[in-house]
Amino acid sequence: MAKNKPSKLLDTRVVYCGDCLEQLKNLPDACIDLIYIDPPFNSNRNYEVFWGETKEKRAFDDRHAGTQAYIEFMRPRCVELARVLKKTGSFYYHCDWHASHYVKIMLDQIFGENFFLNEIVWKRSDAKGDVTQGAKHLGRCHDSIFIYTGGSDDYTWNQIFTPLDQEYIENFYRYQDPDGRRWKMDNLLGPGGAAKGNAHYEFLGVTRYWRYTKENMQKLYEEGRVIQTKPGNVPMYKRYLDESKGVPLSTWWDDISLIRGWSKEKLGYPTQKPLKLLERILELSSNENDIVLDAFCGCGTALVAAENLRRQWIGIDISPTACRVMAKRLRDVSHIQEDEKLWAVGRGFVVRGLPWTIEKLRALPPFEFENWAVIALGGIPNKAQVGDHGIDGRIYPASAAPERRGKAKGELEFTDAWYPVQVKQKDKAGRPDIQQFAGVMATHGRTKGFFISFDFTDEAIAEIGQFFRKTGDIIVPLTVREILDEQIAHKLA
Questions:
Q1: pTM here?
Q2: How confident is the model at residue 139 (pLDDT cuts 50, 70, 90)?
């Protein structure tokens, strides 16, 4: 167990690769301060395969049967999540229209309907893409996030305020001091009168129940904070705009946009959520050094948010590719090292349970294996399962700095300096495989490329040499064993 940790009961800054149902059983009761999950709706899909856009449409031929299967899948996992949540903790369940009503009933049964706190409505998109020509439904543009507390009235809650609407400012804060400081007139009367214990007295010729004592009212008047527009009018309080905290956050969240094509944080993960969304949730329901758990952490947004806000964290995901993606993101974005020794002294982080053996890698579905191989090289996987034209990923050298080309161009684009990666999940890649990749390189004008397989035939190696002598271009052969043994640095140079 790592040293210098907030809990002696469990390790933090750990990403576990595996089914959360099994991983959660290893955690003690009431050990987590905040849980956030965003589980995929179609839980019976092949978890190992994502980034195939068709697999993220979340549609079933039989909607009722699909929803029932989803709830049956999630119920035992939510039971475990309820067990590990502290009494003072909070639980957030992120879902969409497919099963939200069924999820709410399930959570009421597990956490207790009396401990349901809020349903947040997150306006995630403008829904234009959801309403095709001839569609007979309203645009689906929001997700639901259910909040439950752990059972105590003393749950963590940090009120958040959002900025005042400009129209509201113009309509209400319409007065200005000579120095330009804006203010509005506010009520000084005591709500509820005598029943609420408000003081009754005469002030500036007006007798009323006031919210302040006569002494405090006189002090405010001397400070210039009480104004009377004309004799006989009820005095009013002078409330300055710059003293306003804003509007208390409500359950309608329309100020955080979804991940768009040009977003700097976009990873290509189809259900990736904005970092600002997770940071807001963590700010609401946790404090520094609290322990945050995401049991379906995907590309790791909740973990990055926790690291940014100085929380401890635990991530679980069944997909090895997702675990490698989030590990790379933690290294690149949060600038913490994946290192066993640093983690042991409370600084770095670790990933547990990855299938880092030849046998387990052979058993992975092909697209998952491709993702693993490309990410292991530090590359970016191709999001498409089919139609990749022989390119499974790209490696960008340090010189390939991104440049913004504007919305008309779409997203952040890299300068034209990249190396293609081809992956074959076969015992030995042969001459035809190399010839095909050489053609891909020629088509895209690449002078260097990387080819990954478990091994290569002698004919394949000979073909690589012949290709170099003929064109001067380089194909770098890499075996899975070399990647596992981290013997590839000299070949990536």
A1: 0.71
A2: confident
